[in-house]
Structures are given as C-alpha cells and as structure tokens.
Design goal:
The protein is an alpha/beta fold and 275 residues long. Helix content is 44%, strand content 16%. Bound molecules: S-adenosylmethionine (SAM).
Length: 275
C-alpha cells in the first residue's frame, strides 16, 4: 500500500491521471491545434465580428455634444418613432420577458418602498412594477421625452405612479431617496454610462438594488443602435464603469436559455449599492 502510494506520487506532472495504455504520452501534447492557437483564432474571429459591428453602429452620439444629442433623443422619442415604439413594444417579446424576471422574483421587488423607473418610455416596465411591487411602495418614473411621459400616462391609467420629465444625468431627487431602481434601455442614450450611473448611485439608498437592461455590442445591438441612434456597451467595460461609480454587479440575468446562449437580448443585470 505504502509502496503503491509512493509510486503514484513520483509520477511526473501531466501523467497523474492517465491509464496504463497512454502512460508514455504527457497530457499537454495533443495532435491538431493547441489550446493557445485555438484561443488566438477565436480572439481574431471576435475582433473581426466586433469590427463589423462597429461599422454597422450609428455614430451620432460620438459626433455631437451631449446637449445636441439630448435634443436628438427628445426628437426621436417625441415623434412618430416613439409612438411606434409605444405600440410595438407591447407586442414585442421584451415586455413579457421583462415581466418574467419580476414575476419569478429573479429580480425581487418585495420589501422595496421607494421605486424609481428610469426612462419609463410608454410605461413598459412601469406596468410590471405596478403589478409586482408591494402595494404600499411609492413608484416614481421619469423620461427625457415629454411625448413618452404623455403616452405612459395614457396607457397606464393609474393614479399611483408619480410622472416626471427629467434627464438621467441631472436627477431632481435628493441623495439616497430610492431603495430600488429599474433602468431599461436608457444608458445606450448616454455618451458615457458613468454620467447616468453616477447620478443613480447618488439617489440610491445604501443597500438599494437596480435592474439594468442595456444594448450589447453585438450584431443585434449594432442594428438597435442604427434604428434608435444610440450606442452599445461592451459587457466588461460596463462592469468596470459600474464599479467606478460604486455599483456592484451582483447577478447577471437572462430572459431565457436562448438569450444566454446567443447573447441576443442585450445586457441584463442586477446591481447593488453597497450598504
Ligand atoms: C427604448 S426606450 C425604453 C423604455 C422602457 N424603459 C423599456 O424598458 O421598454 C428608451 C427611453 O429612454 C428615454 N431616455 C433616453 N435618454 C434619456 C435620458 N438622458 N434621461 C431620461 N430618459 C431618457 C427615451 O426618451 C425613451 O423613452
């Protein structure tokens, strides 16, 4: 017994788990491409894909000042495109898929008493908040586009939420007001996410949570960027930006297994402001 153990210990690295038939060939030597070569090839492929996506993406947000871009956003959402969004987003998959996250409590609203919905649009997330938040929770929502706020009021037909026209980069709220924030597809309308995330961190109470959805830098994201004149985010870069403003990325969420596999539904994550 002692001898056998001794023999096993004396095997060179790379041979430890091999059966007797393969004993003479170390694990590291394989036929075909090495792991490093495969990694380099897939990195090159990713770079190529990224370059194509970058070509497709809309560049307006990089080419004008934020003040000019803000006017563009208001114009797009106040106008017919916003009206179409108000109609179609209720028919698209995003609304029921977003509801699943709240209904299943994967993003849990229970116990939250001051809820903020950022860039409420036509009330796509707001209607879920009204359904799944505690009955005594106060719900505030705002949008930069007066046209979208009007549409949300008309569609929601509920006296409970407080509606405001405001810009995410200059919030009219006191520090540490909210214990829960939802922010669906708004950050892509900022040249730098930190302008908005920093404001959200300011108005969040210590320990508050946020559901953040945004457009990713992939093929689908590039098309979204074309249609809505917005930018996209790289997952790692966004993670870094959240950290810089003191928001911790606690849970990556996926609408469905297909979303996880194809990364087709954008970035969906729960964040926390540390207590
Ligand atoms: C794609 S819609 C998202 C609507 C809704 N949140 C959802 O998840 O479906 C984006 C909304 O963000 C608003 N928005 C864009 N930039 C904003 C900003 N800086 N401050 C507030 N709202 C903004 C737009 O007016 C628009 O209504």
């Amino acid at each position: 017994m002692t001898r056998a153990c001794g023999n096993r210990q004396s095997k060179p690295r790379g041979f430890e788990h091999m059966g007797s038939r393969t004993k003479r060939r170390p694990l590291l030597i394989r036929r075909g491409r090495s792991r490093e070569e495969k990694a380099a090839a897939s990195a090159a492929q990713r770079r190529k894909k990224k370059a194509i996506n970058r070509l497709l993406e809309d560049r307006t947000i990089e080419q004008v000042s934020y003040d000019q871009y803000r006017q563009t956003v208001r114009h797009v959402y106040d106008g017919p495109q916003g009206a179409i969004l108000a109609l179609c987003s209720f028919l698209s998959l995003h609304t029921p898929l977003g509801e699943r996250l709240l209904r299943s409590r994967r993003f849990d609203l229970r116990g939250c008493k001051q809820v903020l919905d950022v860039g409420c649009g036509a009330g796509q997330i707001l209607r879920h908040l009204l359904k799944y938040a505690d009955p005594d929770a106060e719900i505030t929502c705002f949008d930069i586009s007066p046209g979208m706020v009007r549409r949300a009021r008309r569609r929601i037909q509920n006296p409970r939420p407080r509606f405001l026209v405001a810009d995410l980069t200059q919030l009219p709220f006191a520090d540490e007001t909210f214990d829960c924030v939802t922010c669906g597809y708004v950050l892509e309308h900022l040249p730098d996410a930190r302008l908005g995330l920093g404001e959200l961190a300011r108005v969040m109470q210590p320990g508050a949570k946020m559901l953040l959805l945004t457009t990713e830098d992939n093929f689908g994201g590039a098309w979204t960027s074309r249609v809505w004149r917005c930018r996209t985010y790289n997952r790692q870069e966004l993670f870094q930006m959240c950290q810089e403003v003191g928001l911790v990325w606690t849970n990556e969420l996926w609408f469905t297994p297909i979303h996880k596999l194809l990364r087709a539904g954008g970035i969906c994550v729960e964040l926390r402001k540390p207590a």
